[in-house]
User: Fold Pyridoxamine 5'-phosphate oxidase from Anaerocolumna chitinilytica.
Amino acid sequence: MEKTYEFLKKCGTYYIATMDGDKPRVRPFGTVNIFEGKLYIQTGKVKNVSKQMHANPKIEISAFTEGKWIRLEATAVVDDRIEAHQSMFEEYPSLLNMYKPGDGNTETWYLKDATSKIISIGGEVIVENF
Assistant:
């Protein structure tokens, strides 16, 4: 999980794919955090991505930087504890312009049953399961 976290942090922006009924949806994300030994992302409950993850929590994340890309398959699990929110805001204080812990909109999700592949153009593949 550490290499996955480091890669996503280095990218800054990654892309998350969800399903909206029978249609795929992809959008940029920028939050990633490790809290209590799990990899977390964050969004707002009012967003379509939240509704899509509640309906089908299987997601895929992809990003590219410095001649390497990542493909991360996982099941997203919502964690609405204030502690999870606060941990994300400590990592990303700029989010406090839009969200607050326990505001009824903030949503943190951890990734489980995850397989991450970091692949270089040269062919090296790093696999992490968490």
